[in-house]
Amino acid sequence: MVDILGRSRTHVRLLDMVSAAATHDVEVLIQGPSGVGKELYARLIHERSQRAAHAFIPVNCGALPAELFENELFGHQSGAFTGARTRTQGLVAEAEHGTLFLDEVDALPLSAQVKLLRFIQQKEYRPLGASRMQHSDVRIIAATNTDLLQEARAGHFRFDLFFRLRVVPLEVPPLSERPEDIAPLLEHFLLRYAAEYGRPTVTFSDAALERLYTYPWPGNVRELENCARFLLCAHGGARVDVSDLPLLPEPRREPPPADAVVPAWREPFQEAKRRVVEAFERAYLQESLVAHAGNIAAAARASGKHRRAFFELMRRHGLTER
Ligand SMILES: Nc1ncnc2c1ncn2[C@@H]1O[C@H](COP(=O)(O)OP(=O)(O)OP(=O)(O)O)[C@@H](O)[C@H]1O
Ligand SMILES: [Mg+2]
Hints:
Blueprint: H1 9-23, E1 28-31, H2 38-48, E2 56-60, H3 69-74, H4 91-94, E3 99-103, H5 110-122, E4 124-125, E5 134-135, E6 139-144, H6 148-153, H7 159-165, E7 168-171, H8 182-197, E8 203-204, H9 206-214, H10 220-235, E9 239-240, H11 258-261, H12 269-291, H13 296-303, H14 307-316
Parallel strand pairs: 1-6, 1-7, 2-3, 3-6, 8-9
Antiparallel strand pairs: 4-5
Helix pairs in contact: 1-2, 8-10, 9-12, 12-13, 13-14
This protein binds adenosine-5'-triphosphate (ATP) and magnesium ion.
Adenosine-5'-triphosphate binds at residues 3-6, 32, 34-40, 145, 185, 221-222, 225.
Domain Sigma-54 factor interaction: 4-233
Protein name: Sigma-54-dependent Fis family transcriptional regulator
GO molecular function: ATP binding
C-alpha cells in the first residue's frame, strides 16, 4: 500500500490529480526535484487504476546505455545478436496490462526517444530479431527532475514526445515550498522507524523543532526521512536539540542580525524602515508558523490577519509554494 502524507494545499491538489489520472488511462509526466516523491505518486496512480492487479515496472532511463534501450524495453528473439541465446522478454512485456514507469526520462538519447514515441503512438513494438510486431497494453508514466520543456527547447528532448508524455502534468514542488507538510511527514517517519528499529521515539527541544520547520530541506522528503532514521538510531528515547540534528549548513539568506535591524540614521528613513519591516515580517511569519506546526490557517487566525493576506505575505518572503 502506498502511503502519501501531507496537508499542504499542494498535497491536496496533487491527490486530486492522482485520482483523475488513475481513472483515465493516459500518460502522466511527473516533474519535480530529487526526493519529492515522484515515484511514490506514480505508484499511487497505478495502485488506484484498473491496472492495479498487474505489474508496476520502474525503468531508470538514466542508467540505460543507449545501445541497450531497445533490448531492455522490447526484448529480443534468440539469435538476434551474438550472445542472445534465448528469447528474453523486455520490460514492456513484463509490464503487460500494468504500468511502465520511465524514471529520468530526460536522460533518454534521441535515438531511443524516437523508438519510445513510435511505441506509445502505435502500441506495438518489434523485439530485436523478431519478424512480427507485438501488440502491447501498458500505461506509461514518466518522471524527470529537469525542466523537460527547457530540455526540449535546448534540443535535448523531442517536442513531440514531450507533449505525448505530458497528457496529465504532475508538478511536485520542493518541500521548502510546502512547509505545512514537514510536521506530518516527520511524525510519520518517526513512528515508522521507531516501530521498525524497535526503539522509543524522540522528543524535540523548541529550538530543534523550529530548525526542522524552517530548514530548506534541499534533499526534500528523502532527506527528511533519512533525518528521522538517523535520529531514532542515534537518539531513540532521548530529547533532541539543535546540535543533534544531521542537517546541512545553510547557504540560505538569514534575517539580518539584530544590530542591522536598528535603523541606521545614516540611511535614508524609507530605506531603513523597509529593511526593519521586512526583517520583522519574516521573523514573525517563521515564528508563528513554528508555533502552529506549519499550519497556515491556524497561524493566520492567531495573527488576526486574513488567511489569504497571511499566505500572500509568506509567498513574498519565499516561505511557501508559488
Ligand atoms: N508525501 C510523502 N509521504 C510519504 N513518504 C514520502 C512522500 N514523499 C516522498 N516520500 C518518501 O521519500 C522518499 C523519496 O521519494 P521518491 O523516491 O518517490 O522521490 P523521487 O522524487 O522519485 O526522487 P528522485 O528524483 O531522486 O528519484 C521515498 O522513501 C518516499 O517513500
Ligand atoms: Mg525517483
